[in-house]
Design a protein that fits this description.
It is a single chain. By secondary structure, the protein is of the alpha+beta class. Helices cover 32% and strands 27% of the residues. The strands form 7 sheets. The chain has a 5-stranded parallel β-sheet with strand order 3-2-1-4-5. Helix 1 runs parallel beside helix 10, helix 6 (103-113) crosses helix 9 (231-249) and helix 7 (126-136) packs antiparallel against helix 8.
């Protein structure tokens, strides 16, 4: 199977790694890719939000499956263009991708499907925003209605801050605050059937203890020793399958990965948000533990051949990933700084490094090229061993001004010790 993977971040390096381990994948191409994916397949310069350009490259490479990593190409209609050209695509059409592209649309779908979520109001003016904030009270939750790369949400006790965010975004969804821990669950769908991956937890805030601004994610781990028994079955029954069924009823079948961001509240499971692609950095730990070959799974979804009886196989143990972020991330990350120590990090047993925001510098060495620069993954028999290996490998890497959280999976590891 000849596969073209779209994207350039840590999620895409994790996908490329998993695809490269599938014996059925005979050729792997990445566009644009990064220096990490270049070691696994061929990188191609490409504007991945240009549907025509994507189709042309896929044809030239005689691609049998296109896997879309980030959300922007989906919202741009890349999935639609590929299917019209007869090229199998793992990733929803533009209409179905609105489940991420518009928070208001997602709420509408959830209401129609009976999916449990936070009560909310869609607001387009300062007056509407004030009324909604006062109706729910603090903590205030204000979400940009459109795409914001995981950083369009403000949760604050400060009403003025909430109003400023609403004004800056324009159209927002203001909703009740959901208590309880958050969980990410991905489900692969062919438009009719769906199969769950392992639940994971990520860490959104920039600094230890959940302090600092929201980011795209500073680390993740799986399994979740504290998660209730039967959680995955409950989410499939009450969230994923009703949503897939409702989108199919609307004649916009959902083909790809449906990412359910969940809160385990005192009143039960509630959907915080949907995304139309794999989460980053949760993908890095979930795919590490997947034993079922990934290429065949994604192809089955793309061609409508996912058997309802599909059961995935998982490697035992645990995986932890820690994000190494550039100086001043997430505000205005520094770029172009030299990265050292990758060979030393690779010598740590059962640990490896995924590239997220890297580039080849003018002198041929590796330099930072984004806010989240590297994802360091550690694996082990349990969370303690996995996180020890991740942090040991991370400690061997050098990047001027970089920062990372030191508490990824610490509490969960202590609970399961």
């Amino acid at each position: 199977m000849r596969v073209l993977l779209l994207g350039s971040g840590g999620r895409e390096h994790a996908l490329a790694r998993a695809l490269s381990l599938d014996p059925a994948v005979t050729a792997l191409h990445c566009a644009p890719g990064n220096p990490g994916t270049a070691a696994l397949g061929d990188n191609h310069a490409l504007n991945i939000t240009d549907p025509t350009a994507v189709v042309e490259l896929a044809r030239r490479l005689r691609t049998e499956l296109v896997v879309v990593g980030p959300e922007a190409p989906l919202i741009a209609g890349v999935g639609d263009a590929l299917r019209e050209a007869g090229i199998p695509c793992f990733g929803p059409d533009r209409a179905a991708a609105r489940i991420e592209g518009s928070k208001a649309f997602a709420k509408e779908v959830m209401a129609a499907a009976g999916v449990p979520t936070a009560a909310s109001h869609v607001c387009e003016s300062a007056h509407q925003a004030e009324s909604a904030l006062d109706a729910f009270g603090p903590p205030y939750v204000v979400k940009d209605d459109g795409l914001a790369a995981g950083k369009g949400v403000v949760v604050t006790e400060d009403r003025d801050e909430a109003l400023r965010h609403a004004a800056a975004c324009g159209r927002v969804v203001i909703e009740e605050y959901l208590d309880g821990p958050e969980v990410s669950l991905f489900a692969l769908s062919d438009g009719q059937h769906a199969v769950p991956l392992l639940p994971a937890q990520d860490f959104k805030r920039a600094y230890d203890g959940g302090e600092g601004p929201n980011t795209g994610g500073m680390g993740a781990y799986t399994p979740l020793p504290w998660a209730p028994t039967g959680l995955v079955d409950e989410v499939m029954d009450t969230v994923v399958l009703p949503t897939v069924t409702e989108l199919r009823r609307r004649e916009t079948p959902y083909v790809g990965v449906l990412y359910a961001g969940l809160a385990l509240t005192s009143k039960g499971v509630r959907v915080v948000e949907f995304n139309a692609r794999f989460g980053d950095p949760e993908t890095q730990v979930v795919l590490d533990r997947l034993a079922t070959p990934l290429g065949g799974l994604l192809q089955a979804c793309a061609i409508g051949g996912l058997a309802p009886s599909t059961r995935l196989e998982w490697r035992p143990g645990a995986a932890v990933t820690v994000v190494l972020a550039a100086e001043n991330y997430p505000a205005s990350p520094a770029k172009g700084d030299v990265i050292t120590g990758l060979k030393e990090a690779a010598q740590v047993p059962d640990a490896y490094v995924l590239h997220a925001g890297t580039a080849v510098g003018p002198e041929g060495g590796l330099v930072s090229a984004g806010g989240r620069v590297l994802n360091v993954v550690g694996t082990g028999a349990d969370l303690t061993q996995a996180r020890d290996r991740a942090y040991e490998a991370l400690g061997r890497i050098g990047l001027r001004g970089s920062h990372h959280r030191t508490d990824i999976a610490r509490q969960a590891a202590a609970q399961s010790a």
